[in-house]
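ok posting inputs for the beta-D-glucopyranuronic acid job
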Amino acid sequence: MTAPNETGYDLWLRYRHIDDGRRSAELRGAATELVVAGDSPTSRAARDELATALAAMLGTQIPIVPKPSRDGAIIVGTVASGLVGSLPLAANARREGTGGFVVRSTSVNGHRAIVVASTNDVGAMYGAFALLRAIQTNAPLANLSIADHPRVKLRMLDHWDNLDRSVERGYAGRSLWEWSKLPDTLSSRYHDYARANASIGINAVALTNVNANARVLTPDYLAKVAALAGVFRAYGIQIFLTARFSAPIELGGLKTADPLDPAVRAWWASRAHEIYRFIPDFGGFLVKANSEGQPGPQDYRRSHADGANMLADALQPHGGVVIWRAFVYSNEVPTDRIKQAYDEFKPLDGQFHENVLIQVKNGPLDFQPREPFSPLFGAMQHTPLAMEFQITKEYLGQDTHLVYLGAEWEEVLKSDTYARGKGSTVARVIDSSLTNTARTAMAGVSNVGTDTNWTGSQFNQANWYAFGRLAWNPELSSRDIADEWIRMTFSNDPTVVRTIEHIMMVSREAVVNYMTPLGLAHIMATNHHYGPGPWVSNAGRPDWSPTYYHRADTLGIGFDRTPSGSDAVEQYFSPLRERFANIDSTPENLLLWFHHVPWTYRLHSGQTLWDGLVAHYSAGVDTVRAMRREWQSVKPAIDAERFAQVDSFLVIQEHEAKWWRDAAVDYFQQFSRMPIPARYEPPAHPLSFYLELRCPLDRDKPRCPPIY
Ligand code: BDP
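and the output
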């Protein structure tokens, strides 16, 4: 039987009818009636989700009753409701804290039941989603025993959405926020977006681009934001806005935005007051300042701490927080760009007010396919540091390339900073188990837009999903997360799960290989960041140019960041700094990040660096070819519509992997002057061909015409 076509709109919340007779009988026995305590908007959201999902999976409505009366009730509620039964269960639920819950197969008044209990409505809703996940992923229902809670308090999506509905680095259509129709018209997508986020524990969203427009802080827009907050609130989601640092000048008519100027401080205080009049549970501001031309406190010779603290003081009476980004670099500063965030922020450790978090990109450069973790993690132990991952794959093939980012993020989170000796992982900085800061946060730059499938491709949904799950618990394994997502999104068939999981798990190393192997970075085309451009040397400023990063010459390739070079290694704790400073102990996958390496250097494989570079580039292409074959093998189990979309994108990915590989190999060969080993295909075209390729001017989806 062929599966009915799906667009992907339903994400991982598909709740398809269960055809397997055994499983269907099991669920029928475990879900004879539904009891959801309370009538808050959040309890109603949980009840509606469960009722709709169970009806769809069973093919019949189950009764919603006020009290359990027979075997097989699903009972959801807070401990205070008294409905969720026994004391030990209540004690467990309490231990899980805010947002935490237990899901347990148990007995209530002599009847078999599944109980979802929490101390709070949002926790009970998360528990309901966890139960639905267990059902969708085929977990046995007779002995459920889940106790879980979020390890990170703010789990946030950052939308880089502009007020004209364009999306910076968005590859999935336009912005979801229909500003011109708000507040009177509420798109049904807002609700589905909130459900999807809540189902993975996301509890905050920044609606607007970090390259901010001050107008979002005006009453006209605040009324629109309040309407969105009205939809999101039931799902436990708080709204943040980006604050343009110069807003007091642009909106307030002041002559300055100096954070120490009393009039400026008063302006922000009254703006905050007004925001909270519209949105009483407003989360706070996300700020990009003195970065890439954005205004900031340094325009007035004040520090990042002065700027952040001024906004923090404005929000403090209302309980709001400032999330201040550490993504700063300046072309007036002559040092290695990757050192600058640390140089700026490390000296400010301890100077930020209590309601400030510093948001740090995972690596010290800019969301490249592979970077070492940012040395700020672990270095600022008196300041809450938020992780910033990029879900939208600006540098990793954007909408079309299949790249599962869970693997990348796991690598970052598991990295050991050695800040307090061995075991001081980045995850432990983020969840504060290492640093003990009261506030914790993880943010992901959203990949969501108006495309029917939300994220531009079916597999990009997995990255939204994985982000939420890792923000909930940074110790989760990306493989386990992939497993859940595949089961909910495609199928529980073991062969399908195994095959797709394999595709996903190899996909990240594939993209590293065909774009930037062995620690290369930032060698993509300028502006749109799509496709290879290692030859670019005039991208406006030196540290935007690929040649600045790869430094290929006839002697070798790579950026010397040892003490004899930029000494960026010095920003890491021992023993990492020594490990990275020494070419022999540097992990090979970061070799060219830290060293300028002779072409004839011997890699662990025994190959010369040049041969190894060609081997990695070729392996990237080969892996994509294998991914295509593997995808073909699951065809019978996937609906035609989604199958075909993924399949056609894999064709693009294979072409473009080869384009990347051939262009890079041609280009670097000019410097190595060594032959391409006979066992690898020669590039399809000479370098001049790639140099002359021009991508069409499509701002949203830059893509070169097929070239093979
Ligand atoms: C870079 C993007 C740019 C963003 C910037 C940022 O190319 O569009 O504005 O990051 O994070 O990756 O602020």
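notes: The chain has three domains: 21-148, 154-488, 512-559+596-692. Residues 640-672 form the longest helix (33 residues).
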